Amino acid sequence: MMRLWATFLLLFPRVAAARNPPTRPLNVIIISFDALRADRLGVLGQKRPLTPNLDRLARQSYLFSNAVTQAPWTLPSMASFFTSTYPHQHQLTNKFSVFTEDRRELATLPRRMETMAEAFLDNGYRTAAFTGGGGLEGSFGFSRGFDVYFDSDTFDGFRLTFPLSLDWIRRQGQRPFFLFVHGYDVHGQYIETDKIKSRFADPHYHGPFTGSLKEFLKLRMMTIKGEPIHITQADARFWRALYDEKVLRADEKFGRFWSELKRLPGLLDRTVIVVIADHGDQYYEHGGFDHGMTLYEELVHVPLIIPVPGRPGRTIKSQVRLVDVMPTLLDLCRLRVTPRLKLQMKGRDLVPLMDGQSSPREAVSETDFLLQSFKRSLRTAEGWKLIYDLENLRAELYDLKTDPGEHHDLRREKPGRARAMTRRLFKSLGMKSPI
């Protein structure tokens, strides 16, 4: 069953600062490829031809090659994205705020949090979102600020949301709009047919796996339970090949969507596009499958592509965060921002980086996934990364410059750095350091 959420009146009115909007406001289209790893893009080093359409767009855009998500699964990551706050601040870290045998209450975004969509709505924009549901169901609070919010009972993809988005765009006329489009096309639980055949799989693979959803869900549940998974590297390559096939198919759908956008007269000349992923995915790189349980690079390093009308774009290697996107869009579109929202946003505007200025920033990521994994990470602007397990009180330390795959834990070799980063991490979280 599909659900259509329409919100025309906000529960709490806000007074915006007096500032004249631009004579011709920019539109915004945000496209979220759920679970797309940064290392799958050709412009970020992938050798397989998986993303020709995204690569073409990236070459004429601001490509942020070192972007970090604030959580390794959809619900908390997108709550951070839409509020420019961290999971420990918005508290939308699991689907249930209460989960007992006798009582279950869905978690929702706190009313005190102002969303990106609300900011655009308050500035006279039409707002719409077309999502695949799941962790983006409107009932979690994501529908706030949207005139139209579409989600699905299943993990659905761009085959559904791209056509709906195009139909909506064509009906907007000259009024500025803010649009969010999302698809689960590369997600492990998304399948278009019972079995997917990968163009990248080893034709000589005769292992135990066929790539079915049932097999994937079993590996996922073993990961969540902390059970050891004993498979061969050939098995792991098989699963990665299936993932790569999904990436290619998603890129093909994006290419068709982009072609339709280009056919709309003048649209791209007055529209800021943002391409993101909320998180990545793991396929046995650190012994597990799916996402949410860890904070390794395969989960937190994500694509971020922003073409801006009238700007040539370039690759920006400085580290940035998904929480930085909201203040950036508010700046680019010259929106009136409430004092409350200015205080709320923890991200920093990316426009100075686009203008060639230096703006170093650290990145924090968090997960309390299913109340099974309690981890926090700090990634410095210089490429050092600390992962701290709150349950086991144990740190891991990596030098991403020399060890991007996080295979060599330097905690014992660099105890001073590990202690100092632990203290910085806990300070940023507003928590007392254990050391």
Q: Would you mind describing this structure in some detail?
A:
- By secondary structure, this protein is of the alpha/beta class.
- It has two domains: 2-361, Alkaline Phosphatase, subunit A (3-Layer(aba) Sandwich), CATH 3.40.720; 374-435, Arylsulfatase, C-terminal domain.
- It contains twelve helices and 20 strands.
- The chain has a nine-stranded mixed sheet with strand order 1-8-7-9-2-10-14-3-15, sandwiched between helices. Strands 17-18-19-20 form a four-stranded antiparallel sheet, with helices on one face.
- A hairpin with a 7-residue loop joins strand 17 and strand 18 (375-379).
- Helix 5 packs parallel to helix 7.
- The protein is globular.
Helix content: 25-40%
Proportion of beta-strand residues:
15-25%
The CATH superfamily label of the largest domain reads Alkaline Phosphatase, subunit A
Q: How large, in whole angstroms, is the Cα Rg? A: 21 Å
Q: What's the story with the biggest beta sheet?
A: 9 strands, mixed
Number of strands: 20
CATH topology call of the largest domain: Alkaline Phosphatase, subunit A
**Total number of domains:** 2
Concise synopsis of the structure shown:
By secondary structure, the protein is of the alpha/beta class. The protein contains twelve helices and 20 strands. The protein has a nine-stranded mixed beta sheet with strand order 1-8-7-9-2-10-14-3-15, sandwiched between helices. The protein has a four-stranded antiparallel beta sheet with strand order 17-18-19-20, covered by helices on one side.
